[in-house]
Amino acid sequence: MNFFNLPKIELHCHLDGSVRAETIIDIAKKDGITISSFNIDVIKNQITAPLECTSLDDYLKSFSLPNLVMQSKENIKRITFELYEDASKENVKYMEVRFAPLLHTAKGLTIDEIIGSVIEGIKSAENIYDIKGNVILSCMRTMSSANALEVIEKGKKFLGKGVVAVDLAGPEKAGFAAEYVDAIKVARDYGYRVTIHAGETGIGKNVLDAVELLGAERIGHGVYINDCIEAYNIVKAKNIVLEICPTSNVQTKAVQEYKSHPIHKFYNDGIKITINTDNRTVSDTDMTKECQSIYDTFNITQEDYKQIYLNSVNATFTTEDVKEWLKDKLTESIKNNKPTC
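Below the sequence we write its predicted structure tokens.
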């Protein structure tokens, strides 16, 4: 199956995990930022996690360097634009990019300026390429609920203007959801949609908590519902969408290898799954590679892909007009015989 030619949708992609190595070097030179090397291979090695990562915490080490060059409005806008440019060139038609604004305040940027710069980058790409996008604001679990509430309050003015949802991300510990109940309730009351990283590191009950305590509509990863029947059942019963990131899951050891990933089991059992990159640079991947890995491992059919694509359309935090546009993209592609098996 020619996945490159197929229209694609990405719902789980981190901005700071998807920065071009060339851009890091260029910005470092321009802004006088000290980095270990200007050699492209050295930098790529520092920002790309190997398949043999030992854990999620090990995987997250690759994010420190990109954040050094994401401390000005110009750089954040550029990096966002380049992400959407790269995605559009492999026929991604819609992407919800997520990032944590508080990671970009080191040189004095306000949260408003940071969010505005990401939205500007998306709009610039939309004006040139056949792609549309929105923003998910990530609140880091290494920070307090007060920090999360600060992001939610400052992001409120951008709802309907590029921002669509809130997320909790970062290292995952058991029972994390309880700390953020009040903050996420405020977000829901304001009109934010909710997606939560959970069940990525062996704690399936976190998914149950994310749904029951936080009102999550989508779950980032969710692999470990396989080991928690209560979480599995609520995800299935409530049609909670899983944002599956196959390569990242292998790297973080959520699964040991592609063939042991439960994604196909979930799909066959009627759980709503979507395919995503998580981090294009850190995982050295794109949507074409992710789809190909699932096809090679589980031999999914064109009809399977069509259903997964429609799952993604229906799970987007966007307008009905954009959803219809995305459905038309798939119909047009099939009609023109672009997907080939």
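The domain at 8-335 is CATH 3.20.20.140 (TIM Barrel).
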